[in-house]
Amino acid sequence: MNKPLIQLNGKTALVTGASRGIGHASAIALARAGASVLVHYSSGEQEADAVVAEIRAFGGTAQKVQANLRDADGPHKLAKQVCEVIGGRLDILVANAGVSKAASIEETSIDDFDSLFAVNVRAPFFLVQQLLPVLCEGSNVVLLSSLAARAAVGTLAAYAATKGAVDTLVKHFAAALGERGIRVNAVAPGVVETDMSSFTKSDAGRDMTLGMQALKRLAQPDDIGDAVSFLASDAARWISGETLHVDGGSKL
């Protein structure tokens, strides 16, 4: 009998922003494949508790960790907690936590711009930096990019710039860490039916989304979570430095 494609038994994983949306789905997918998951949250403690309970309900292993990644020292505090919990090795880092802001160029404030880059770019950069002592040969990092990094979608110029930066970091991280046997990739979703894409709840938003996709349904968080789980597994062992577009054929 063939083994399942995705097997993560004995692996440890950290998923940032795992209390909802794509982070929640990624934590569940990793846990179902056998990984022990650290569920990070910033302010949604009840939601994080629910994710941990969901994983434990099907026999998985999980616990929550908290840090505000908007703060300059947030990644450092999170890395310290993670190292205290896992000991000497982290197999999977999914840097999913992110914020979005729809605003025209004229309406974008300095505070909004800085907040977007703090959470979406600075936090994953320094989280990787701080976790390097426990990222070992065979470990891998999955960052979250976006369709907005390669195509103009709505009034998201500043947000899109952060995701373009993520795509660049993937290349540099993969090149720098490859000699240590660490893989680094990104997943770039299109529009996903989450709180961050609340416009999909309107008929106009749904029609706009389906109109730019080859596949005619709204993406669900687990569509992205499964792709994250794939990249984190040995099934993707010869993939590094890539951004995987998981967007239903958007903006072809």
Would you count the extended β strands for me? 7
Order of helices and strands: EHEHEHEHEHEHHE
What is the CATH architecture descriptor?
3-Layer(aba) Sandwich
**Which structural class fits the helix and strand makeup?**
alpha/beta
CATH topology: Rossmann fold
What does the main sheet amount to? 7 strands, parallel
Counted by DSSP, the helix tally is: 7
| Cα-atom radius of gyration | 17 Å
CATH class: Alpha Beta
Question: How many domain units?
Answer: 1
Low-confidence stretches: none
What would CATH call the homologous superfamily?
NAD(P)-binding Rossmann-like Domain
How much is the average pLDDT? 94
Q: Mind explaining what this structure looks like?
A:
- With 252 residues, the protein is of the alpha/beta class.
- The protein has one domain (12-245): Rossmann fold (3-Layer(aba) Sandwich), CATH 3.40.50.720.
- The protein is built from 7 helices and 7 strands, in the order E-H-E-H-E-H-E-H-E-H-E-H-H-E.
- The chain has a 7-stranded parallel β-sheet with strand order 3-2-1-4-5-6-7, sandwiched between helices.
- The longest helix has 22 residues, at 110-131.
- The protein is globular, with a radius of gyration of 17 Å.
- The mean pLDDT is 94.
